[in-house]
Amino acid sequence: MKKDMELANEVIRISGANPIRCMKCGKCSASCPSFNEMEYAPHKFVDMVVHGRIEELMESKSIFHCLSCFACVERCPRGVEPAKIVEAIRVVKQRQIGENYLDANDIPAIVDEQIPQQALVSAFRKFKK
Amino acid sequence: MIYSYYPGCTLKTKAKELDIYARKSLEALGIEIEELDNWQCCGGVYPLAKDEIATKLSSIRTLNQAKELGRPLLTLCSACHHVLTRVNNDMKTNGDINMRANNYCAFDEPYNGETQVIHFLTLLKEVVGFDNLAKKVVNPLKGRKIGAYYGCLLLRPSNELAFDDPENPSILEDFIKALGATPVVYPFRNECCGGYISVTNKSQATKNVDKIVASAKYKGCEQLITACPLCMYNLNENAGADKIEVKYFTELLAEALGVK
Ligand code: SF4
Ligand code: SF4
Ligand code: SF4
Ligand code: SF4
How far away, in angstroms, is A24 Cα from ligand 2 center? Predict the structure, then answer.
């Protein structure tokens, strides 16, 4: 339990967001274009951080489906900023050794003639630490 | 007034049209720009983690360079604009990031967010003026039904970007009108195309793009315009069966101004 709350505090610190403010309206998840891809939708992320359930989130692929589109941030009536919480969990996960989601060796198989540099730079920022 | 121009890496490679038509159009409009020397890639996404400083440094150097020249910083790519605007905001409002970044960079003078970051579209709206732009159009794009694709990075989060109304934006529609074409408003114009997810999960991007294209076609768009090379890529390359023509907004501008 102690470790769970320590991890949760680390996520809150890195994100700068305040999950306690959530009133569970679900607007973030209703706005989320990745809702169908995610095991835990954004409002669930917020709730699980409040309850110290960080390791479950770190083990879920949901953290790699967020697009950082900021629809949840824009539409949350309580200023919770769920995207920052999702990011913080992804960051905590990927700062562990061997936990990068994308490797430079994966790239040749992925690239096509048209892919813009922006896509690759952005994906590395998100999926590799 | 000369604007310091930040093209970003993709405008030098895969999105050359976005850049070239912007330069030609500005020349036609009598606006002077000078590309920043030795600019570095901004990283494409704003580092959200409060304790990440290193990934913000390239943007801070860019912003400081414009400050030293005493010029506003002109952006064109949606992602560059998003990143530079938010890092600038951090330097203004986040004491911790400001202190650490300035300690590291050790500029002659500390950088405190003094530079004005202005997107090309805002320049058209506020400096040129859409009425004035309409007067300079030599090839009005009459009868063309064009949908604005905003995506997300120009609009959100609106408390930092302060670009337009995040839920009901109008700047691109006003731009389309100024060129003599007919803007078509459709529901998915400010929904995300998937962005960088097309690198790791193409099918997820396809699902988003299909909704956007269907929404645009349903409302009668014949063509979409964008300011983002990644939107362009996703809309073009990651659409399912149904496709729509997509152009950079600067290409339409150059066409209307007769400099294409
Ligand atoms: S930022 Fe992420 S979590 Fe928030 S709405 Fe977009 S995809 Fe969903
Ligand atoms: S929109 Fe905000 S308040 Fe509503 S559930 Fe999501 S985080 Fe909580
Ligand atoms: S946003 Fe993209 S195009 Fe712009 S400089 Fe950054 S990585 Fe390059
Ligand atoms: S590529 Fe996607 S993430 Fe980027 S601005 Fe376009 S809609 Fe947003």
Answer: 5
- A2-98: CATH topology is Fumarate Reductase Iron-sulfur Protein; Chain B, domain 2 (1.10.1060)
Q: In this predicted complex, what is the ipTM?
A: 0.96
C-alpha triplet A46, A48, A53: angle, nearest 5°: 145
Rounded to whole angstroms, the Cα distance separating A47 from A27 reads 14
Are the beta carbons of B175 and B130 closer than 8 angstroms? yes
- The CATH number of B2-120, from 1.10.340.30, 1.25.40.20, 1.20.1050.140, 3.40.50.300, is 1.20.1050.140
- Specify the fold of B128-257: Rossmann fold (3.40.50)
Q: What are phi and psi of B5, to 5 degrees?
A: -100, 130
List the structure tokens of A98: 């061997």
* 3-state SS assignment for residue B224: strand
Helix axes of B229-237 and B202-218: crossing angle, nearest 10 degrees: 90
Q: Tell me the pLDDT of chain B averaged across its residues.
A: 97
Please report which helix (H) or strand (E) contains residue B95, including its range: helix B95-105
Min CA distance, B169 vs chain A (Å)?
14
For residues A73 and A3, is the Cβ–Cβ distance under 8 A?
Answer: no
**B13, B195, B229 member nearest A67 (Cβ):** B195
* Candidate of A12, A20, A21, A28 to mutate for ligand 2, largest count of ligand atoms within 8 Å of Cβ: A28
In the beta sheet, which residues pair with residue B3?
B33
Residue B253 CA, chain-centre distance (Å), reads 15
Cα angle at B238 between B41 and B152, to 5 degrees? 55
Query: What are residue B2's phi and psi, to 5 degrees?
Result: -105, 135
Write the pLDDT tens digit of every residue in A17-49: 999 999 999 999 999 999 999 999 999 999 999
Q: Where in chain B is the domain with CATH 3.40.50.1860?
A: 128-257
On whether the pTM is more than 0.90, the answer is: yes
